[in-house]
Here is the input.
Amino acid sequence: MSQSFAVGIGGAAGQGVATPGDIFAKIFSRRGLHLNAYNAYQSIIRGGHTFLTVRTGPQKISNTGDHLDLLIPLNQDTMDRHLRLLTAGGACLYNADLIQPGAPAAGVQLCPMPVSNMADITRNKVGQNTLAIGAALSMMGVGFPALESVLVEQFRKKEQAVIDENVSLARAGYDYATQNFKPFAWALPMTEARYAVLSGNAAMAMGGAAAGVKFYSAYPMSPATGVLHWMAAHARKAEIMVRQVEDEIGVVTMAIGAAHAGVRAMCATSGGGFALMSEGMGLSAQAEIPIVVIDCQRAGPSTGVPTKTEQGDLWQMLGAGFGDYPKVIAAPLDIADCFKLIPEIFNITDRFQCPGIVLCDLLLSEGRLSVDPKELDFAPVIDRGEMITSNGSGDHEPYKRYKITESGVSPRAIPGLPGYTHVVSSDEHDEDGVLISDEYTNAGKRRAMMEKRMRKVDGIAASVPPPELYGPANADVTLIGWGSTYGVIEEACELLREAGISANYLIVRWLVPLHGDAIVDMLRDARHTIIVENNFSGQFARYLRSETSFVPDGNIRKYDGEPFAPHHIVEAVKEQLAGKTKLSVPVHEIMV
Amino acid sequence: MSTTPVTPQPPQPKTNRIGLQILDYRGGKTTLCAGCGHNAISERITEAFYEMGVQPERVMKMSGIGCSSKSPAYFMSRSFSFNSVHGRMPSVATGALLANKTMRSIGISGDGDTASIGMGQFVHLMRRNLPMIYIIEDNGVYGLTKGQFSATADIGSKLKSGVINDLPAIDTCALAIQMGATFVGRSFSGDKKQLSAMLKAAIAHKGTVMLDVISPCVTFNDHEGSTKSYKFMQGHEEPVAEVGFVSNFEDIAVEYDHDTTVDVQLHDGSHLRLRKLHEDYDPTDKARAMNLLMEAHANEEVLTGVFYVNTQKPDFTEMLNMVDEPLATLSPERVRPSREVLAEIMAEHG
Here is the structure.
C-alpha cells in the first residue's frame, strides 16, 4: 500500500472550513503530491456540520480512505464526532480555549493550542483556523515560505493588512508547533510532478469545452450547480452560450433547440431535475437531435438528501421517457474520467443522433482530485457524424431528413442550408419528416421508422468498449461496480490482498448499451462475485440480471448518503466469504 | 441581354422583390376542418412573408402540439420546420435562435399550448424579447382532444355540451406586455386587412412579437354562448386603432393625420401607422396599454389591434453581446477555446 496522509477539518457551516481545505490542497499539489478531497455537508447556509477530508500522497489517491492522520476540529462537535478517526501516529490540533479534548486512540497526539496566549484573534473569527494551518504544516515538515506564498495568493483580493495578519497568525501557529508538538513520523514528500486539482463538475464542464460545446443550459440544482458555475465563469472566454433557464423542462428543450440549429449542446442536473427532462429525452430521440445530459445523482427520492451522494438514478435513466428509443448512458469512473467521457459521449450521440446521459454523482461532482494535465486532452477528435454542411453544386436527390438507411442514421442538415429544407417533429413521421399521425394509421411506415431508429443501437454498441477486469486472474473474490465506486473498490481490493484474500474487480463505465455477453464471459470462472453499489435495491445488479440473467453471489449496498470507505467493503467481503450473509449494508460509523 | 424577344412570351407570373412567386411560400394541404380560423391565418402568413420578400430558407417555423401547432405544415414549405412538444416551443426556439441568430423564426402556438401547459415557458420567452414572431391561434378550446375549455376561454362562456366556464380568461396580451414583449397585439382570423398589416409589421420588427389571433373552432366552439365564435367576434371586435403598414420598399410619403395617427418606425425602416379609434389609445405607453386591456375586460369588449410597440429595447441576441458569427456555423477549428484560453483556464486549477 502506497503512503498517504489524510487531514480532516470540521466545523459548523460558516466557520470557514473551505479556506483551510483550499490551502492544504494547494500546498499538497505544489509539492507534486496527489490528492483526493470530499466535503460532507448539509443543505443550510449557516450552522450544521461540515467535514472536509483531504488525503494526499505521492501516488494516485483513489478515495479519501478509512482514517485520519490529522484532525482539526473547529468546534466541540467535530472533536466529539471525529476524534475516533485518528489512528496511531496521528494528531489532533485544536483551540484549547474553546474545545475539550476527547479520549483518543493509543498513539494519537493531542495538540492543544492556547489560542488567546498565541495571538489576539478577537476581531478575526477565523483566526484559529490560520493558527492551526501554520501548526499543521510545521508538524508535516513543510517549510513556512510555501505556506506564506499560498496565503498571499488566497487573500490576494483583500487589503494588505488582511494578508499580513494571516501570515503572522500562521507564523505564530507554525512556531508554537515547532516548539511544543511532535512532528509527524512521515514528513510530507515532494515530487517534480505538477497536478491540476479539479472537481468532477469543473472536469465535466472543461470536457464539454474540449468537445466543442457551444451551448450550455441549466437550472441550479445541487450537486450539479458546479457545472453551471464553471460554464458561467468561462462563457465569455470560451465563447459558450450559457443560459440559466426557468426549469429543467426548458433546460433540455432549449438544448435541443440549439442542437437542432447545429451546435453541440449540453446540460446538467440532478435526479429531480432529470425527472422533468424525461419529455425532452424522448424528443431528442424522436427528432434525432443529439444532446448530452449530465445527471449528478444525489440521495433520493424527491428532494431526498440534497447534499449527499447515491447511485440511485440508474433506473430513472434506463426508463426515461416513454416508448423505445436508442440512447447512450455512461458513468465516469473518477474525476479525470469526468473530463474524458464528455468528448467521447458527444462523438457517439452525434454519430447516432440520439440523447446521451452522463451518470455522475455527488461524490465525483463535488469531490476534488489531482489530475495530471497530460491526461486532459483538450483537442480530442470531434466526430459530428453524418452532417451535411454545404449544398455543394446544388444538385442532389430530394433531401429526406429521416431517410431509411441500413445503419439507421440519416444524414443531418442544419436549418438555413438551401436545398435541405426539412420538417423535424416529435410526432411519428415519414422519411421526409411529414407527420404520419395525420394519415390513416400506416402500420408499415411506423414500423419502418421504428426499426430505422432502433438499428442505431447496434452501431452504438460497436462504438463502446466492453468493461475490463482489473487485478489477478483466479482471485478469491471478484467485485463488480459501476461509475464512482471505482476508486474505493480499487483500494478495497489492495487491502484484501494485504489481508491474504486475492481480489479482482470489474467496473462498468458504459451502461447503455451494455456488453452483457462480454461481462458474463469475464465472470464465468469467477469464484465469488459481489456487486458493490451506492443504493438500496441493487439497481445495477437488477439491470445486469435483466440483461444477462447473471446473479452475483452477494451484494454490498450503502444508501445512507455517505460514500463507501475502503474498510466497509473489506469487512463486507470478509463476512460474505465466511458465509455469514449475502447482502452487506455497511454502517457509516460517523454522523456527518 | 436581348431586349427584343424573338417570340412573344407568356405573361410572367407575379414575383416579389426577391423574385419569388407566391407559390414559393405555400405549404402543404391543410388537414384542419373546413372553415377553421387557423387556415385563414396560414394564408395571411404566406402572403405577408411573400409581400415582405423574406427568403423562405432563412426562416425556422416552430410549434408545439395541437391543431394550431400543425399549421406550420400548411404554409412556407421551403422553410425549416420544427414541431416540438406540447408547450415547449418557446425554449426550443430560444435555443435554436441563440445557436443561429441569423435565422428568422415564426412560432405558432395555441391557447392550450401557450396559456396552460406552456405558460411557464411563454412568460419567460416574453421576458427575453427574443427576435421572433409568436402567434397564438386562440379558439378557447382544445380541438384535438374534442373540445375542453382552455385557459383563454372567457368566464361564463358555454361549451357545446352546455358546460359553463367558471374561471376568468388569461389575457395573453396583457401578460406579454407586462413580461417584456416589444410588439403585442390581438387580431381576428376573419379580419384579413388588420391581420395582414400586423403580420407585415411583425416581420419588420426586431424583438418578440406576440400576436393573439382569435381563430374560431368551427367544430367545438362556434355556437351560441361561445365568446370565440365567428358570430361573437363579428359583433364584439373593437379595434383600438386602424392598423396600417408601409414597408421600407414602398413610398413612405403617404399622407396621414398626425393628430389621430401614431407613426412608428420599425427596425427595417418600415412604418407602422396606427389611426386611433379609441380615445385612451397610446401604443408606446405600457401602463396605458395595460389599462386599456383591463377596462375592456370589465366592459366585455374584445379589443383588437396593436396594443404596444417598443422599438428601443434591445432584443435578446443584442443584449447577450454574442460573437458575430452564428455559433452553429463556426468552423471546426473554432468550436473549442484557443490554446491561450485553455492555458489560462488550466492555470486556475493549478
Notes: Chain A touches chain B through 66 residues (CB under 8 Å). Chain A is about 35% helix and 20% strand. Residues 197-375 of chain A form a domain with the Rossmann fold fold (CATH 3.40.50.970). The mean pLDDT of chain A is 95.
